[in-house]
Design a protein that fits this description.
five-stranded parallel beta sheet; eight-stranded mixed beta sheet; FAD/NAD(P)-binding domain; single chain; 32% helix; 507 residues; 2 domains; alpha/beta; globular
Length: 507
């Protein structure tokens, strides 16, 4: 664990001009920082608005919070952890892993907590970014946005929600001081987070009412604790743990064939999910309302051994007739039913298509990233570089999501690409690199064409994978190794570059 003094030092460190400024101290930002330091680039800073590192795993502390990717896979490939307590690690363990990794990899002194980035503007004369933060201004040659897409809570637009007189909070802003024992609790939303906290809330509440808009596919989670003997063997024989990681990776990659290329292959997976549902929910009427009418994978697949079982408990009820409005002491459904509530819990996901940095990031042409995306759609070359935004890179940007595997693969691919870009800039005396407009356009049109016949676009559901414009801005339509190969090296031919002499060179 990082002790209090380390956190204090990270938050109180001076802001100064740097070579690289990284926004976000979650898996993405820390991964880039570690790769930079390994490559000998020490002139960087990590700006984090919260009071500690961890990103998603610091902010989300709701009961039952855990990763739905096996822990051996949801960790850096260069920093395996033999001490995972179980196959699917709970949130406190993941946070402890990140803290330990930051300490052992020597990046604590680069962290600046309680430092929120309000905006950044490209200076085309100085060829640097001017970054405005809550603690002052700094400039950087490269700006890396690693804030992640699951950052800003999505609050539903339900009439009367603001007038509710009881407690009401989002899963990503859990109020641990509020005691749910003996209360009448309503849950709005049945996504991945809700599937984890609903079983825990059900154990406490006098009555639990879950308001479901659309059921999701739920697969059994093949979870189990790791014995002390297993942990010792992992520590003594790292090759064995790496073999476990590799087997898990390729098992997950196999799902891509059904998701992307041949949807009929998903029928076998759906049979497992239907068996799981039948086993856990004996009531045929409730079971029918929990059965999706779209292909598995079209929406995010949930993995749980206790979520569905919650609806078989006498104090739990599933309501699927929609919410007309929220009133001071409860909810009125579309059929006119009045449900009295003491507390409302929101499991309504995140504003994936409205990242916090987009409105304050001003590029070379004086327009913000949000304005550019508003006109042209959310897009980026290789999910990281955007035309008119020189020396600006994203981690886990548009069309990098994986519907089947660990996002750590994407993070490491982006980190390696950023490091390779810096090496190329130094070797060729380049002051700035900016992806060419035609390269970005061609890349994204190809991505959209490849997404057209995937389960995410044709599976018969409405999900956050697809934006209001009907384009899938979220997912990568192939195997994750194919993505890594595309980012294996910086190709100057794809970029407009400017040398330190200020001469513009269109490669």
């Amino acid at each position: 664990m990082i002790d209090g003094s380390a956190i204090a030092n990270g938050s109180a460190g001076e802001l100064r001009d740097v070579r690289v400024a990284i926004i976000g101290a979650g898996f993405g930002g820390l991964g880039v920082a570690i790769k930079l330091r390994e490559a000998g680039f020490d002139d960087f800073v990590v700006l984090e608005r919260d009071e500690a590192l961890g990103g998603t795993w610091w902010a989300n502390t709701y009961p039952g919070c855990a990763c739905d990717v096996p822990a051996h896979l949801y960790s850096y490939s260069f920093e395996l952890n033999p001490g995972w307590s179980r196959m699917f690690a709970p949130q406190p363990e993941i946070l402890a892993y990140l803290r330990r990794t930051a300490r052992e990899r020597g990046i604590e002194d680069h962290l600046r907590f309680r430092t929120e980035v309000h905006g950044a503007r490209w200076d085309d004369d100085a060829l640097r970014w001017n970054v405005e933060t809550s603690r002052g201004t700094l400039s950087a040659q490269l700006l890396v946005c690693a804030a992640g897409g699951l950052v800003e809570p999505n609050y539903p637009d339900i009439p009367g929600l603001a007038d509710f007189q009881g407690a009401c909070f989002h899963s990503a802003r859990w109020d641990h001081d509020h005691d749910l024992r003996g209360e009448r609790v309503g849950v709005i939303g049945t996504g991945a987070s809700a599937a984890q906290f609903i079983p825990e809330v059900q154990k406490l509440a006098a009555r639990l009412t879950v308001f479901q808009r659309t059921p999701g596919w739920v697969m059994p989670r093949l979870d189990h604790p790791h014995s002390d003997m297993q942990k010792r063997l992992f520590a003594r024989f790292p090759a064995w743990q790496r073999a476990v990681r590799t087997s898990l990776y390729y098992a997950a990659e196999g799902l891509v064939v059904g998701l992307v290329y041949e949807q009929r292959l998903l029928t076998a997976v759906e049979r497992v999910a239907r068996w799981h549902l039948e086993k856990q929910v004996p009531d045929p009427e409730v079971r029918a309302r929990l059965t999706p009418n779209f292909r598995i994978g079209c929406k995010r697949i949930m993995f749980s051994n206790d979520y569905l079982r919650s609806y078989a408990e006498p104090n739990a009820e599933l309501v699927s007739d929609g919410i007309r409005k929220v009133v001071a002491d409860g909810v009125i459904t579309n059929t006119g039913r009045y449900v009295e509530l003491d507390t409302i819990l929101l499991g309504t996901g995140f504003r994936v298509f409205d990242p916090p940095h987009a409105s304050g990031m001003v590029g070379r042409d004086g327009r913000t990233l949000r304005e550019r995306w508003s006109d042209r759609g959310i897009r980026a070359y290789l999910g990281t570089a955007v035309a008119n935004f020189p020396n600006h890179f994203m981690v886990m940007g548009p069309n990098t999501g994986l519907g089947n595997n660990s996002m750590i693969n994407v993070i490491e691919a982006h980190a390696d690409f950023i490091v390779d870009t810096l090496k190329a800039m130094d070797a060729r005396a380049l002051a700035s690199v900016e992806v060419r407009e035609d390269v970005e356009e061609r890349y994204n049109e190809d991505i959209q064409a490849r997404l057209q016949h995937t389960v995410w676009n044709e599976g018969g559901c409405k999900s956050w994978y697809v934006g209001p414009d009907g384009r899938n801005h979220t997912l990568w339509p192939s195997f994750s190794n194919a993505f890594k190969r595309k980012l294996a090296r910086f190709d100057q031919a794809d970029f407009v570059t400017r040398a330190h002499t200020d001469a513009t060179v269109a490669a």
